[in-house]
Specification:
There is one protein chain. With about 325 residues, the chain is mainly beta. The protein has one domain. It is built from 2 helices and 14 strands, in the order H-E-E-E-E-E-E-E-E-E-E-E-E-E-E-H. Strands 4, 7, 8, 9, 11, 12, 13 and 14 form an 8-stranded mixed β-sheet that branches. Strands 1, 2, 3, 5, 6 and 10 form a 6-stranded antiparallel β-sheet that branches. Strand 11 (about 225-260) and strand 12 form a beta hairpin. Helix 1 (about 5-15) runs antiparallel to helix 2 (about 310-330). The chain starts with a helix and ends with a helix.
């Protein structure tokens, strides 16, 4: 038997019992139940009020919310890179990564709110109060995205409400109210515990981990006995931050007569930004995604396997053939 053939035979037999590292996926589905848009406590913290005016026209406004909810979903896979078979007890490494499913992230919020704008017109003998806007409205955000770790997703919705509160022969007064909502959601990390146990044993080992980017986490473990080791995940949590903000602009305007022949023509519309309002800018809080645990995700064989995988079996047969060639030449 030539030296080259001997080396090939040894390598083939070695590889038959040392399966190369493989990658499998463990699917995770995090779904946050509906909760308050304002965080813990559940009560509305949305509101603003003020007053102002110009010339003979005065205004006051109130903004508030009746309902506000938010929910979310993040679905993807933990990528597990490991060596499924080891020839002898010892150290090995398990690499973890994350891959979000295409269009499998969702951020959804609903707001029910109202705005009231009142005016007062005081021009000499005429002094009257009136309502310009008294309406409810809703803002709805439903953002679909591909989840990633350490990723910020922003979404917004806006609406405009206008009204006229005084319209008589000599004057016309109104207001336009514009409001916009912006939601920000950040998936900061996936953390949990990798548990493993020698099959048939009652002793379980645990390795806490935190995966804060899509790839790059390696866990070193020591499998110190022959046999099959089973691995599973315990209490995997999606660490996250959510915040919402509302900005509004209130523009008031008036037309009055007094131009042209006998002062019967409108003199033109005068507008004024009464308020550029930072209505609400909430502190970030975590959406309540429940934790996820799994059954056995993968196993590692330490020592000779009772059943070889097809690729390993083929390598073993190739080694046996090599040994057969040696005997044939020797005879």
């Amino acid at each position: 038997m030539s030296a080259a053939l001997r080396i090939l035979t040894v390598l083939t037999l070695f590889l038959a019992f040392n399966v190369n590292a493989t990658v499998i996926n463990q699917t995770l589905n995090f779904a946050a139940s509906t909760q308050s848009l304002w965080g813990s406590g559940g009560s509305s913290d949305f509101g603003a009020s003020g007053s102002g005016g110009f010339g003979p026209v005065g205004f006051s406004y109130n903004i508030g919310a009746s309902t506000g909810t938010v929910s979310g979903q993040v679905e993807g896979d933990i990528l597990i890179n490991y060596t499924p078979m080891l020839t002898s007890p010892g150290a090995t490494a398990i690499d973890l990564g994350f891959m979000g499913g295409l269009n499998r992230g969702r951020l959804k919020s609903d707001l029910g709110a109202w705005v009231e704008v009142d005016g007062d017109f005081d021009l000499g003998p005429v002094d009257t109060g009136f309502n310009i806007i008294d309406e409810g409205y809703s803002l709805n955000i439903d953002k679909i995205f591909q989840p990633k770790l350490d990723q910020t997703v922003s979404a917004n919705d806006s609406t405009t409400i206008g009204g006229t509160g005084l319209n008589v022969f000599f004057a016309e007064v109104g207001a336009d109210f514009d409001i916009a909502q912006t939601d920000n959601f950040e998936a900061t990390a996936i953390d949990g515990t990798l548990a493993y146990q020698l099959r048939g044993s009652v002793i379980t080992s645990f390795i806490p981990f935190m995966l804060d980017k899509n790839d790059g986490l390696s866990l070193g473990i020591n499998l110190d006995e022959l046999g099959i080791w089973d691995f599973w995940f315990v209490d995997i949590a999606l660490e996250n931050l959510f915040s919402t903000s509302f900005d509004a602009e209130l523009v008031i305007w008036e037309n009055h007569r007094g131009c042209g022949i006998l002062g019967s023509s409108w003199c033109g519309r005068n507008s004024h930004t009464l308020a550029d309002i930072d209505v609400y800018d909430g502190d970030p809080f975590a959406l309540n995604f429940p934790t996820v645990s799994t059954s056995t995700a993968f196993s590692i064989q330490v020592g000779s396997a009772q059943v070889l995988e097809p690729s390993s079996f083929a390598l073993l047969m190739l080694g046996i053939v090599g040994l057969g060639c040696r005997r044939s030449k020797a005879s």
